[in-house]
């Protein structure tokens, strides 16, 4: 028995040592690549000054520029969040104060989605819900469904970010898939867990038992700020918003008509507001500025990363990020990625910032979609820390209920991970859906805008309206719709896997009209509209080209490097260099 223990101990030590040696070898390979890069740059230039300049630019200036652009990118997300609060923050607070609406689970879910889209932060909307529960305006059980909606609404940011890579079809395909995998996981989790929570209230009972079992004391209003310490100085020069106003409107402490979101002080948009503009007008201007800043930062970052991530360095980074742990630790690779995602999100205190920063890397092929998935799941866990910290800052008399709703957010995400990650065949579902969306947007670029508008605005508003009229009306419309969608998905899977078992009419969709199984008719209509716009306004020519769909042959652009007429020589070479990391 002791010999077996000794052998197992030796085996474990061997695997740990091999993992450590792999990391040491990785560092050595990076160092060797650096030396070779310096030597190669030295061969290219004859003068010593040229050698030094090349090394300084490639190994010092470019990384510093990438870090600076990343900082400005994070600041632009903060400014965009402030802009959305100015545009719709008061409305979000007013809606969250409607107690009768929130008691309806479906209404609560849709309000959570819309409110989070308006404030552009699940951390903010979760903190508002925690404040409402702490004030006694809303019970914990109906607040759980708002938290579920907030989880869905937060994924709109990285989906917007992916649009900046629409210039290259292959990059856009990967970037959009990397962004929407967050959406797919959140939607699938809600579809499964919402009915379970409505019938069993398992989240409520589990978190209630935890709160009662542990006598947790509040922090007395302590506030933890990590990355915001770095971004606040820049943001405060541009805009300063009272973050407590939306919460006070939701709790009924302030009237939305009289409330002012802009603080007094010396900052850029204060002077613009003093010129006589309303807060919404200021928010609109700030939104344009922040989106412009975000696009410029992302485009420059992608170009710099393109120039840096090539050759041996690119191969080493790709293999390191996308490789698995050795030996029996292979199965812990995903868990490690989840922990990393949770840790980084806790540091930046925003899942939107983390996933938005990862999206361009997925587009470039540095991070594979299969690795992006567990990182995204970890960010969902990390973002719950903000709500827990907000709950711990509540007064002692309000601590139990506010902490319980914050823990509901945590356990909802844990439940989703347990449902959609451990089993390989379940893990493939959100990845497959994200890949399908990525391939569709590569072929029809306008579909990305359509997806954003429908999934985050029209669908929540439609479901919200139907649930207001009658829950039976919603069931009468929703259940047949879901059954049809499920039937189509099952038939599509069988057409790919077991085509022979289907009747001849169902083996393909060709028997149906084109508009029922293809986006080509809509694409042709949009192309004609863009051609008319281009003829009427020559300045719109570039826009019509960039939004145009695939080539006239209508072939799906599954792999851009096989279609040189759609890509430049440089893009073709770059696509070939990262062929192994394609979605």
TrEMBL record:
Keyword annotations: Cell membrane, Membrane, Transmembrane, Transmembrane helix
UniProt GO MF annotations: sodium:phosphate symporter activity
GO cellular component: apical plasma membrane
Keyword Transmembrane helix found: yes
Pfam family, one: Na_Pi_cotrans
InterPro entries on file: Na/Pi_transpt
Membrane-topology descriptor: Multi-pass membrane protein
An example Gene Ontology biological process: sodium-dependent phosphate transport
Bilayer-spanning residue ranges: 59-80, 128-154, 175-196, 281-302, 329-347, 401-423, 444-465, 471-494
Subcellular localization: Apical cell membrane
Main location: membrane
Claim: Transferase is one of the keywords in the record: no
Similarity comment: Belongs to the SLC34A transporter family.
Protein name: Sodium-dependent phosphate transport protein 2A-like isoform X2
Organism: Acanthaster planci
Originating gene: LOC110976049
């Amino acid at each position: 028995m002791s010999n077996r223990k000794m052998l197992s101990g030796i085996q474990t030590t061997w695997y740990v040592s091999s993992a450590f040696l792999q990391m040491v070898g990785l560092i050595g390979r990076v160092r060797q690549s650096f030396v070779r890069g310096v030597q190669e740059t030295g061969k290219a230039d004859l003068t010593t000054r040229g050698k030094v300049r090349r090394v300084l630019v490639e190994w010092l200036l470019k990384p510093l520029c990438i870090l600076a652009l990343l900082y400005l990118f994070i600041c632009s997300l903060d400014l965009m969040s402030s802009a959305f609060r100015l545009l719709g923050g008061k409305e979000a607070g007013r809606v969250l104060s409607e107690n009768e609406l929130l008691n309806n689970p479906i209404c609560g879910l849709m309000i959570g989605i819309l409110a989070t889209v308006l404030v552009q932060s699940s951390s903010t909307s979760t903190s508002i819900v925690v404040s409402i529960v702490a004030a006694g305006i809303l019970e914990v059980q109906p607040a759980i469904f708002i938290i579920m909606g907030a989880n869905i609404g937060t994924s709109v940011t990285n989906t917007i970010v992916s649009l900046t890579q629409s210039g290259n079809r292959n990059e856009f395909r990967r970037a959009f898939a990397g962004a929407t995998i967050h959406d797919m996981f959140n939607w699938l989790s809600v579809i499964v867990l919402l009915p379970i929570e409505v019938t069993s209230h398992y989240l409520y009972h589990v978190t209630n038992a935890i709160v009662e079992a542990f006598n947790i004391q509040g922090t007395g209003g302590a506030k933890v700020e990590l990355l915001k310490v770095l971004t606040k100085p820049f943001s405060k020069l541009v805009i300063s918003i009272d973050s407590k106003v939306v919460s006070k409107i939701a709790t009924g402490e302030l009237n939305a008509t009289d409330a002012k979101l802009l603080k007094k002080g010396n900052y850029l948009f204060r002077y613009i507001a003093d010129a006589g503009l309303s807060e919404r007008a200021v928010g609109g201007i700030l939104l344009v500025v922040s989106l412009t800043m975000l696009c410029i930062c992302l485009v420059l970052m992608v170009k710099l990363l393109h120039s840096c991530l090539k050759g041996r360095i690119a191969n080493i980074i790709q293999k390191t990020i996308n490789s698995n742990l050795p030996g029996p630790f292979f199965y812990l690779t995903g868990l490690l990625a989840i922990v990393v995602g949770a840790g980084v999100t806790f540091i930046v205190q925003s899942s939107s910032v983390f996933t938005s920063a990862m999206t361009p890397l997925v587009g470039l092929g540095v991070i594979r979609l299969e690795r992006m998935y567990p990182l995204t799941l970890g960010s969902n866990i990390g973002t719950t820390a903000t709500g827990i910290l907000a709950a711990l800052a509540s007064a002692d008399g309000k601590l139990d209920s506010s902490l319980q709703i914050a823990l509901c957010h945590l356990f909802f995400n844990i439940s989703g991970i347990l449902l959609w990650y451990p089993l390989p065949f379940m893990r493939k579902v959100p990845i497959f859906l994200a890949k399908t969306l990525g391939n569709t947007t590569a072929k029809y670029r306008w579909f990305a805008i359509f997806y954003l508008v429908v999934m985050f605005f029209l669908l929540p508003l439609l479901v919200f309206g139907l649930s207001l009229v009658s829950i039976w009306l919603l069931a009468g419309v929703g259940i047949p719709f879901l059954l049809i969608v499920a039937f189509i998905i099952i038939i599509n899977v069988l057409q790919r896997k077991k085509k022979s078992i289907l009747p001849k009419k169902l083996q393909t969709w060709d028997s149906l009209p084109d508009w029922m199984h293809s986006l080509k008719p809509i694409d042709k209509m949009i192309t004609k509209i863009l051609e008319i716009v281009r003829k009427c306004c020559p300045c719109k020519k570039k826009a019509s080209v960039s939004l145009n769909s695939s080539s006239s042959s209508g072939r799906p652009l599954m792999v851009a490097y096989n279609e040189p007429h759609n890509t430049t020589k440089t893009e073709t070479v770059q696509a070939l260099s990262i062929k192994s990391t394609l979605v």
